[in-house]
Design goal:
Elements lengths: L11 H19 L13 H33 L10 H28 L11 E8 L2 E7 L7 E4 L1 E5 L4 E7 L4 E4 L7 E3 L5 E5 L5 E7 L11 E7 L1 H12 L8 H12 L7 E2 L4 E2 L14 E2 L4 E2 L2 H14 L13 H12 L3
Parallel strand pairs: 1-5, 4-10
Antiparallel strand pairs: 1-2, 2-3, 5-8, 6-7, 6-9, 9-10, 11-12, 13-14
Helix pairs in contact: 2-3, 5-7, 6-7
Bound molecules: dinuclear copper ion.
Length: 342
């Protein structure tokens, strides 16, 4: 069902209001669980943020109860039975002392909690560079030895139980990385590198989302953090470091040729296949990823073939041209080729 932005008739507005009010407790409860819930922390940074949130919530409840009690006192007591309260005391106590004390406690608490976000990294710790692009994520695993370093996109694997340093940058506009179950938000600002340390304490798939409006496809700029055992991580990293597999079947070979002859390599890199473009996501091992289009749809040959021609319907504003001039067979062959790049 489409929700109208503007009610066509005057009667529609109150009906929607009533419906929204009736649904809101359910919506709030739904928002408290799931793979993108800040209230289901799976790492120290997110846990500190959740503790801070609950502390603020508790403080808010106490202050709300206090205000309600004062309101009831004012409304229910008849004027003759009310004890006179000095205006000065109300202003100094409730308007100055209470906020100063409450906000100071909160500031000290918040600063202590925030330190986990900037935790130190062990000498052999894993370091990644993540760049926000309109509208996808470039992910580079850094290593002192250049053979250890590789580039991928829209998916971050990390070993369970180890702090991982994320160096965050951007080369267009300000984005913000938020993996609610692992850490707090951190902005990606052009001309600057921000640092965030995340750690997953349990294996799992954690959805992350760009949390700063960055243009037309901002809401469709997501990625997945996937926490696996250290051994599985090493295996994954070995595969990612390796150049792309050579095409084996007839369809894969035809797809590779179409990929090369239609200029795909001007924007995308496929290491080992002579494609070095850096405008769009690195596709060297795209077949191993869960999604395409920055966590937009499942990574299947069918979706890739559709994306090649109709990506502007799937993700309006994205910078890849729509290859509508390619026939269905060619698009399908390119998709089969890309899916073979595991
Ligand atoms: Cu990138 Cu919003």
């Amino acid at each position: 069902m489409q929700w109208p932005l503007h009610g066509r008739s005057r009667r529609a507005t109150p009906d929607l209001g009533v419906l929204a009010a009736a649904l809101s407790p359910a919506l709030v409860l739904v928002a408290c669980s799931g793979q993108q819930s800040a209230l289901q922390p799976a790492g120290p940074g997110a846990r500190d943020a959740a503790i801070l949130w609950w502390a603020m919530f508790a403080g808010g409840v106490v202050i709300f109860a206090l205000v309600l009690a004062l309101l009831l006192y004012a409304v229910l007591r008849t004027p003759e039975r009310r004890r006179p309260i000095s205006i000065d005391h109300m202003v100094v106590g409730g308007g100055i002392a209470l906020p100063v004390v409450a906000l100071s406690i909160l500031l000290a608490f918040g600063l202590r909690m925030g330190s986990s976000t900037y935790a130190d990294l062990p000498p052999d710790g894993l370091s990644l560079r993540i760049d926000g692009r309109q509208w996808w994520w470039k992910v580079q695993y850094l290593g002192e030895d250049s053979r250890l370093a590789f580039t991928t996109a829209n998916e971050v694997y990390l070993p369970v139980g180890a702090p991982v340093e994320l160096l965050l940058g951007s080369n267009d506009v300000i984005h913000s990385l938020w993996v609610p179950r692992l850490a707090g938000k951190q902005d990606l600002i052009p001309g600057r590198v921000n640092r965030l340390v995340v750690e997953a304490e349990e294996p799992g798939v954690f959805r992350a989302q760009c949390a700063e409006f960055c243009g037309l496809a901002h809401t469709k700029m997501a990625l997945y953090f996937i926490a696996v055992s250290p051994d599985e991580f090493q295996e994954w990293a070995e595969r990612q470091r390796a150049p792309a597999a050579l095409p084996r079947t007839e369809a894969e070979t035809r797809g590779a040729a179409a990929f090369a002859s239609n200029g795909c390599a001007l924007c995308h890199a496929v290491r080992g296949h002579g494609a070095w473009g850096e405008v769009g996501p690195d596709l060297t091992h795209i077949g191993s990823r869960r999604t395409i289009g920055a966590a937009l749809v499942a990574n299947t040959a069918e979706n890739v073939a559709t994306w090649i021609a109709r990506n502007h319907e799937m993700k309006p504003g994205n910078q890849m041209p729509s290859y509508t001039h390619l026939d269905a067979d060619t698009r399908r062959a390119i998709a089969i080729y890309l899916e073979s790049l595991k």
